[in-house]
Amino acid sequence: MKRNNLKKTLLYILMFCPLLVFAQKKQIATARDLLKAGKELKKAEKSMRTLLEDSANRTNTKIWVVLCDVLIKQYEQGNEKLYLKQKYDTAAFFSVTKRIYETMASFDSIDARLYTPTPIRPKYRARHAQLLNSIRPNLFNGGTYFIHTKDYNTAYDYFDNYIKSDKQSLFVGYDYEHKDALMPHAAYWAMYCGYKLKDTEKTMRHLRLAERDTSMLNFVRQYEADAYLVQKDTAKYVKALQEGFKEYPNFAFFFPRLVEYYVKKGDNEMALHITNKALEADSTSVLFRFTKSTALLNLGRYKECIDICLQLIKENDKFADAYCNIGLAYFDQAIELAKMQQSRSKRTKINKLYETAMPYLEQYKKLAPKARDKWLAPLYTIYLNLNMGKEFDEIDRLRNENK
């Protein structure tokens, strides 16, 4: 019985194998006809890809060659339309470029028989590599195109392909890493895409190459630091901020985040140290000077804080936060005195400090009415202690609104 079943199975195989081979040959012939006519090329491409999905066809060179030729024809047609400024989907053109790269790279391993113990000299490598090298800039251009459309995931794939080609056997001898000046810039843009996607693996994949793009190194350092932040690796995040700040003290990213980190830790001495380093790079910076005043305020070095802020107001009398720091410098002194055992003379001094703080905080309130979390509590305390009934009632009303 088993022998009969085996015979039947063999009979079916012998009957259907020729049919399958015939069908395959017919698909290849049809694809060639479409290629020759230059029509329905996407249909021809799909047909060849369908054949390659069958593991039995993966090493069939004829299918791969037809697929590659179909893709080349699509690229040529699209390129011609763009050159003649005819209506054509730009995204589709770049998509064909990427598919050619990916397909020919896959075919190269088949052509060289890398899947066998005895690889051979590939027949199509030189021809395909020459073609791909000539159109390679369009991988980079495709990446920038998709960045402009904010499709960062697709853009990343283009830059990643552009960079990876250096390591592919198909391009032996081209040495893109050292001979292609755009490689570091492609790595930067790949890093940018990863940063926009909040994908830390993509952000960091080409970091070392991106570091060679000296024109964008400040942003490379920013994206590196942000990746560590997303990964919740505080030690590496702070180190990246420190290194970035050391190289680019005037760059907007590093300084405020580094100061914020130490302020949150309660390390105001370190915050002041960083600010002084920043001022060495730019002594006129309003941001650096104001940040220093805040660090001094937090350290209780009130006179130094006030002196800096008075100079800032002299330069710009609409600088709201400078009024706030002066007001708080006097207010905090009053609070510190109030915590001590009070005498008549101390009470007088406390009230004097409240009176001095009041106009600065009122001006801050006027310039920054929405910043209630900064001016409401101090003014409430001041009006209460100075027995300013009308002003106190108004601030009390605002305080109750916040509850």
From TrEMBL:
InterPro entries: TPR-like_helical_dom_sf
Signal peptide bounds: 1-23
Keywords: Signal
Superkingdom of this protein's organism: Bacteria
Record has Signal as a keyword: yes
Protein name: Uncharacterized protein
Species the sequence originates in: Prevotella intermedia
